[in-house]
Specification:
Blueprint lengths: L13 E2 L4 E3 L6 H9 L1 H4 L8 H7 L10 E6 L2 E10 L15 E7 L8 H16 L5 E6 L3 H10 L2 E8 L2 E8 L7
Parallel strand pairs: 5-6
Antiparallel strand pairs: 1-2, 2-3, 3-4, 4-5, 6-8, 7-8
Bound molecules: coenzyme A (COA).
């Protein structure tokens, strides 16, 4: 894995009680398109993209890169989790040289309200702790995004600051395996 450090990518599929976190495959393409075309999913993250544009632009195997986990329920993709390095130019940092690992999450609306995002993110944070022990993880979300805010709190993220970005108030928080019970 180049972006996140020395950990091998992809890891072996990670199994939780109900889910599998795994690398993306060609069979996930339709679910990727659903995610990016959904007005509900896009409500607080820049909006939905036109489906016909996605049908043209999305590659045969979408999202195959270090840090991107497809979340699989009974053999079908229900969402994705990303761990990427946060751009130094953006507001919100906890390290002097920036480049923190940042958690992102997007699930299909039909999978909301079941605790799947909590279960999958907790497993991704566990994996990250093993791969890069002691490194903090950051997260930012619009304060208006109630579901994302509740999820961040459940996972053990704590507020660092709030700021304006993309014309909205953003919540910026940090999580650390050293201070979190997991
Ligand atoms: C953010 C997002 C992933 C949260 O999804 P979610 O399903 O609400 O999150 P959780 O997995 O934590 O599920 C929590 C809900 O499941 C319920 N639940 C049901 N069964 C459960 C179980 N077995 N375990 C835990 N929670 C359970 C909880 O009570 C809670 O319900 P509530 O929302 O009515 O309080 C989702 O809304 C999303 O994809 N949004 C669009 C993309 C986005 O904005 N991403 C954030 C960018 S920063």
């Amino acid at each position: 894995m180049t972006e996140l450090g020395p950990a091998a990518w992809p890891p072996a599929p990670i199994r939780t009680e109900r889910l599998v976190l795994r690398e993306s495959e060609a069979r996930d393409r339709a679910a990727f398109i659903e995610l990016f075309a959904s007005p509900e999913v896009g409500a607080y993250i820049g909006g939905a993209r036109p489906r016909d544009e996605l049908e043209r632009a999305v590659p045969e195997v979408p999202g195959r890169r270090p840090g991107l986990f497809v979340i699989d329920l009974d053999g079908a993709m229900i969402g994705m989790i990303t761990l990427d390095r946060r751009d130094a130019e953006r507001p919100g940092h906890v390290r002097p040289n920036a480049g923190e690992a940042e958690l992102g999450y997007m699930f299909l609306p039909q999978a909301w309200g079941c605790g799947y995002a909590t279960e999958a993110c907790a497993a991704a944070l566990d994996w990250f702790t093993d791969a890069l022990p002691g490194e903090p993880v950051v997260l930012s979300t619009q304060t208006a995004n109630d579901r994302a805010m509740r999820l961040a709190a459940k996972l053990g993220f704590t507020e660092v600051e709030r700021f304006e970005e993309y014309g909205a108030e953003q919540w910026f928080g940090v999580w650390s395996s050293v201070t979190s019970s997991g």
